[in-house]
Amino acid sequence: VFGLDGWWRSQNVYWFYGFEAVFVLATSALIRPKWILPKDGFWRFGLPVAAASGIAAYKVAGLLGISIPFDLSNAQTVLHLLVLAPILEELVFRSALWDLIQSLLKQEQVTLVLTSLAFAAGHFVAYFSVPEAFHGFILYQTIYVFLLALGLGLSRKASSSPLGSVLLHFQFNLGFFVASQI
Predict the structure, then answer these.
(1) Which domain holds residue 149?
(2) What single DSSP character describes residue 148?
(3) Nearest residue to 72 (alpha-carbon basis) of 60, 58, 86
(4) DSSP letters of 33-100?
């Protein structure tokens, strides 16, 4: 793509998180997100469902014979999975992008679908930089992260805050990680 294919493939995933951090800081300066704790039902229902969904996503991949391209025994990967991804991705998709789209369109359902599609597309782009053996996982991941994003967006919509989606995303990823260890 535009002669950047070799450069694109050589980039570490953390470089892209640097871009996301700059994007979040810039948009947060313009659109100040509210940080509200989720309601009681979130703690009793939302977190366990998110963890169970993460476990299911991992186990279903195994049942389908889909190889996971992450080394979940690597501390750097676990840090990425449990800390960086939930915080930065939610600040990008359920805070900055959500607030931007909502301020332009003023339609929460459309905002929910567009941010969910963008989240799934953000994960799909890895398809072009991973070995062909992992293409099946990227397609599978694109589907389950779209569904996850709908749930994360519903949490954002219900609370008017990205805090719940950060916690749910962490819990989903924790479930995925725990499933890899059992």
Answers:
(1) 5-181
(2) H
(3) 58
(4) ----PPPHHIIIIIHHHHHHHHHHHHHHHHHTTPPP-S-TTSHHHHHIIIIIIIIIIHIIIIIIHHHH
How many domains does the structure of the chain reveal?
Answer: 1
125's enclosing H/E stretch is: none
Q: Which residue has the tokens 């493939």?
A: 9
- The DSSP code for 133 is G
User: Tokens 């009681």 correspond to what residue?
Assistant: 40
Tens of pLDDT, residue by residue over 105-161, are 999 999 999 999 999 999 999 999 889 999 999 999 999 999 999 999 999 998 888
pTM for this model (two decimals)? 0.84
**How far is the C-alpha of 178 from the C-alpha of 24, rounded, in Å?**
29
- Residue whose entry in the numeric block shows the structure tokens 């397609």: 139
Q: What is the DSSP letter of 12?
A: -
Residue 135 corresponds to which tokens in the numbers above? Answer: 């293409």
Cβ–Cβ < 8 Å for 120, 142: yes
Maximal C-alpha separation, the chain:
51
On the question of pLDDT at 14 being above 60, the answer is no
**Dihedral sign of CA atoms 179, 180, 181, 182 in order:** positive
